[in-house]
């Protein structure tokens, strides 16, 4: 189960939405397991019941702190827990949001969950205990909101060029060429790539590819046979092998082998509600 909450006006330049998730082991098999696609966003997560660990496709199982922050995900991953209940509050940041609000070195956060306490140099023990004791979901969201609001006055300025580039990528559903973006911004492609990676953490071509795949994935019909060749053409894949390669990269399986019905979260968030393409205004 997930619930999304809009951010207050003061956080709109940084945050796409807040969310609360509760997963119960009785709804799964031997353990809680959910598959997550790269979303184009960064996250700050506060676990207040149970604990999760993550593993990217073909990767190792990293330690996930109770309160963690992660930047861009360029590989799909699974979240797993052996606990009876996992509950958490999360913040989905706009692509440049973490850099703007906190000034993080975004390269270090790519595919890496790091301790929020260490990143912010604060002790969150008392905060975590308060989250655990609070029974009202809106109160938990308000607590996390306040943690971020306290940082707004110290927010960092980033290049508006990157925001404009991000807007073009989202408006084109990830189908625009990066060369076209830099040309429209009247800057060299190398300069745009450098500034984009500094603010977002990954190259613009990689980010654009994620945006395109998220838009394509949102078109999947969970109750019918999908015409992947037509979907690939719709989103400017040159040929089916090109689409096939992206699908396997992000889903870990070929379109024929991938069983979306196994994963409730990805059905709800990436297809039914399409949260990561409906809440992406960057300007």
From TrEMBL:
Pfam family, one: HTH_18
Residue ranges occupied by any HTH araC/xylS-type domain in the UniProt entry: 156-261
Sequence intervals crossing the membrane: none
The keyword Transcription regulation appears for this protein: yes
InterPro entries listed in its UniProt record: AraC_XylS_family_regulators, DUF6597, HTH_AraC
GO MF terms, alphabetically ordered: DNA-binding transcription factor activity; sequence-specific DNA binding
Protein name: AraC-type transcriptional regulator
Ligase listed as a keyword: no
Keywords tagged on the record: DNA-binding, Transcription, Transcription regulation
């Amino acid at each position: 189960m997930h619930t999304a909450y809009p951010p207050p006006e003061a956080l709109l330049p940084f945050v796409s939405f807040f969310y609360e998730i509760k997963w119960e082991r009785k709804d799964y098999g031997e353990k809680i397991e959910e598959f997550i696609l790269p979303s184009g966003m960064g996250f700050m997560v506060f676990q207040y019941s149970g604990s999760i660990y993550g593993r990217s496709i073909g990767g190792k199982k990293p330690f996930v702190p109770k309160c963690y922050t992660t930047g861009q995900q360029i590989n799909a991953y699974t979240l797993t827990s052996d606990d009876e209940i996992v509950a958490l509050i999360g913040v989905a940041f706009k692509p440049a949001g973490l850099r703007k609000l906190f000034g993080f070195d975004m390269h270090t956060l790519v595919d890496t969950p790091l301790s929020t306490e260490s990143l912010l140099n604060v002790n969150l023990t008392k905060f975590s205990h308060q989250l655990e004791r609070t029974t009202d979901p809106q109160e938990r969201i308000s607590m996390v909101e306040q943690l971020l609001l306290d940082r707004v006055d110290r927010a960092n300025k980033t290049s508006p060029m990157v925001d404009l580039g991000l807007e073009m990528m989202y408006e084109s559903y990830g189908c625009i060429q990066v060369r076209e973006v830099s040309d429209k911004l009247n800057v060299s492609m190398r300069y745009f790539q450098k500034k984009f990676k500094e603010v977002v953490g990954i190259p613009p071509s990689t980010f654009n590819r994620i945006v395109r795949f998220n838009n394509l994935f949102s078109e999947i019909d969970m109750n019918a046979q999908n015409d992947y060749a037509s979907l690939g053409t719709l989103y400017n894949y040159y040929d089916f092998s090109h689409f096939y390669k992206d699908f396997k990269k992000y889903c870990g399986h070929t379109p024929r082998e991938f069983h979306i019905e196994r994963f409730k979260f990805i059905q709800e968030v990436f297809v039914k509600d399409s949260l990561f393409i409906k809440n992406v205004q960057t300007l």
